[in-house]
Specification:
The protein contains eight helices and 40 strands. By secondary structure, it is mainly β. It starts with a helix and ends with a strand.
């Protein structure tokens, strides 16, 4: 009777949620911002926009494997507790009814790549140090087809729901990760989790990232921090003994503070254009640099001492992002563990972004516009956004066929504060979505899947289709996305920028409101493995319609870093090879990619891109120590990379400064000793061989040659 009563209550609960979904009116959520949308990622974990040859969980043929061919992350210890007694799952695993757990990675693979740009295959550009604003070197299609905030510059450093690990430990499990990089970079990441009961786990994770302010080759002040980031995450996992009811939940809080420098400023004679010409040795009309320039060759720029270097903005300019997020996923099965299940997902986030210039009178020449009091001593604005999401659905597996149907409702509140207590609300209506997923495995080496989600009654403004086919020697992916412009692209109101692309025809009859953007991508991979060789050629073709970018403001300072929509279609073709070669103790990893872009006036990216990792792995200097000595090399061709506007945290077009064509090489020594994995690294060892420095973003210098180290220490009891 008790079991029947529980089933009846559960069914009524999910029916109530479904009714609530359509009966809930629009809500006002207060003040906040959500840099992510909360659409569920349809792709299974491990699928990336680019091949992840050098990714976090890369394995090599020399690693030990179990009877099923899976890598043993460390030799099975004599102790009672180890990696195999601390499995974990992701929320997407439950959504897809995947029961195979994951295990903590204690290998040495890429532990030396602590920098977020490096750990993402160098496919991002930042402002030269850990935690600064970053964007993808190529492009990212939006996964969220609904309302999105559009402040994405620090998304690289945040935990997303899909990446949170939910453990089931047989003993208390603790991981301690510490990095001491050059120029004041430090990262600390501590995670602890343990089972309160055999079917109930709880844990927390704390992350701290800091880096000091860099100007040229050395910090202005060793105690003057440019980035201060803190994340606090609490999580829990619960399931009944028969696994019919399962729950995952977490609460997170982060604060990301950053000093905005505006980039290097030398003198009025050494402008960005002159520095760009010097950096790339492109002297206009063959005349060389202007006679009044302070720079005569490239290395002069990197040899300048601290007294000669300064930034465009003083140290009194700061940005800050804060966010609180609560998330709940739970499911209840009716007909067996996997045959038929109800699920519900609740998500609430409250976010705030602030920009403050406390030395406004000194910095006012930096800004393209000043709309309010030009005599003020301080310029500040804040943006708030809240989002609440409820998703209800059913899913299950029938004769090898996985299916899932869901309904979702999102409510938002978005507003600007341009003066103290002066707020401008922006209309953000409630949105409702419908979607389904399906997958079928014909054999172990042949499976396919198809996913769909769309806005109800507004499909032309938001929908996405994803299809994937996997066979033994081929993988095919196709996706089509229609997504409305994000909120930052649609509307902005502040002291230095004002635009309205929602009802722009009312404000300016000659300008039309922005249309929904359309993205279509087709990918093909040919994976092949033979003994010590793994090779995967690939190709990717992408088209953009109604693409939105931030302008360069040529001939019109007021148009600098303002969103603009491109009417014509843009096509991008990418092809490359992902190669692993393992010969005894010698290992080589290569990722090479070529990109052909048919519209560089609107979207820009490097044409050639190469990652190469060469290392020796063996027992040294003692048989109980597994060591890896190697060179990690990255290079991409030069191109006019986007510049950075700190007021809005957006990257925008520019035509003065090319970056790239610099070989960035690191020498590293990684070691694995029982439960400790560590590395020693000499970063940018080629500095001074070809050039004395390089830029990662126009007017923002890259990391100089430095010594760094880090370790990861795990405890199972």
């Amino acid at each position: 009777m008790g079991l029947n009563f529980l089933r009846t209550v559960s069914i009524r609960f999910f029916i109530f949620l479904a009714v609530l979904f359509y009966c809930t009116p629009d809500i006002s959520l207060g003040q906040t911002n959500d840099p992510f949308g909360n659409n569920q990622d349809f792709r299974r974990r491990g699928d990336d926009d680019f091949p992840n040859m050098l990714g976090e969980e890369t394995t090599i043929d020399s690693a030990k494997k179990d009877e099923k061919g899976r890598i043993l992350l460390e030799p099975v210890p004599i102790e009672k507790y180890h990696t195999r007694t601390s499995p974990y799952i992701y929320e997407q695993d439950l959504l897809d009814n995947i029961e195979e757990p994951h295990y903590f990675d204690t290998t040495m693979n890429n532990i030396h790549r602590y920098n977020y740009v490096a750990r993402n295959n160098y496919m991002y550009q930042d402002l030269g140090t850990v935690g600064t604003a970053a964007k993808h070197l190529y492009f990212n299609e939006p996964d969220n087809i609904g309302t999105r905030w559009g402040l994405n510059a620090i998304n690289l450093y945040l935990y997303d729901t899909e990446n949170i690990k939910h453990y089931d430990t047989k003993s208390p499990f603790t991981s301690w990760y510490y990095i001491q990089g050059g120029s004041g970079r430090s990262l600390i990441n501590v995670e602890h989790t343990q089972n309160i009961k055999p079917n109930w786990n709880a844990g927390f994770r704390i992350q701290r990232n800091t880096s000091t302010l860099l100007v040229g080759m050395e910090p202005v002040n060793k105690n003057d921090r440019q980035v201060d980031h803190g994340t606090y995450l609490f999580k829990t996992r619960y399931e009944t003994k028969d696994k019919k009811y399962r729950l995952l939940a977490h609460f997170s809080n982060y604060t990301h503070k950053m000093k905005e420098t505006g980039g290097l400023l030398l003198s009025s004679d050494d402008s960005a254009a002159v520095m760009g010409d010097l950096y790339n040795q492109n002297f206009p009309n063959g005349t060389g640099l202007p006679e009044n320039s302070n720079l005569q060759e490239l290395d002069d720029l990197f040899r300048l001492n601290i007294g000669q270097l300064q930034n465009k903005l003083t140290s009194e300019v700061n940005t800050s992002q804060k966010r609180n997020k609560a998330h709940l996923y739970h499911q209840f099965g009716l007909l067996g563990e996997e045959n038929f299940q109800f699920f519900h997902i609740f998500d609430f986030s409250k976010s705030e972004f602030s920009y403050t210039d406390s030395d406004f009178q000194t910095n006012n020449n930096f800004y393209p516009n000043i709309y309010f009091d030009p005599t003020a001593t301080e310029s500040t604005h804040r943006i708030y956004m809240n989002e609440m999401s409820n998703t209800v659905g059913v899913k299950g597996i029938t004769q090898g066929l996985f299916y899932s149907f869901h309904l979702r409702q999102n409510s938002y509140n978005y507003q600007f504060e341009y003066l103290q207590f002066e707020k401008v609300p922006v209309s953000t209506p409630t949105q409702r979505f419908m979607g389904f997923r399906g997958g079928y495995s014909l054999t172990e080496n042949f499976n396919f899947r198809i996913d769909y989600e769309g806005l109800i009654a507004e499909e032309d403004k938001g929908n996405k289709i994803y299809g994937e086919l996997n066979a033994k020697f081929i993988k095919l992916i196709h996706k089509r996305i229609t997504a409305e412009p994000d909120l930052m692209q649609q509307y902005y109101f502040g002291n230095h920028f004002i635009w309205n692309n929602i009802d722009a025809n009312t404000a300016n009859p000659e300008v039309e409101p922005f249309e929904a953007q359309e993205f279509a991508t087709s990918e093909i991979y040919f994976p092949f493995a033979f003994k010590g060789i793994k090779i995967k050629p690939f190709a990717k073709y992408t088209t953009f319609d109604h693409y939105i970018y931030y302008n360069h403001g040529i001939g019109d300072k007021n148009n600098l870093a303002v969103p603009t929509q491109h009417d014509d279609q843009i096509s991008i073709l990418q092809a490359g090879i992902d190669l692993e070669l393992h010969l005894g103790h010698i290992h080589q990893l290569l990722l090479a990619q070529y990109t052909q872009n048919d519209n560089e006036d609107v979207i820009r990216m490097p044409e050639q891109f190469v990652n190469y990792n060469f290392f020796y792995e063996g027992r040294f200097p003692h048989r109980n120590i597994l060591s890896r000595f190697g060179f990690d090399v990255h290079w991409h061709s030069k191109f006019f990379a986007d510049a950075y506007m700190p007021v809005t945290q957006q990257f925008h077009l520019q035509n003065d400064f090319e970056i790239g064509n610099y070989v960035l090489a690191d020498f590293y020594w990684s070691l694995h000793i029982k439960k400790v994995t560590m590395f020693l690294k000499f970063a940018n060892i080629l500095q001074g061989v070809l050039r004395d420095g390089y830029f990662v973003t126009p007017l923002y210098m890259g990391q100089p040659r430095q010594f760094e180290f880090g370790l990861n220490w795990v405890f199972y009891d």
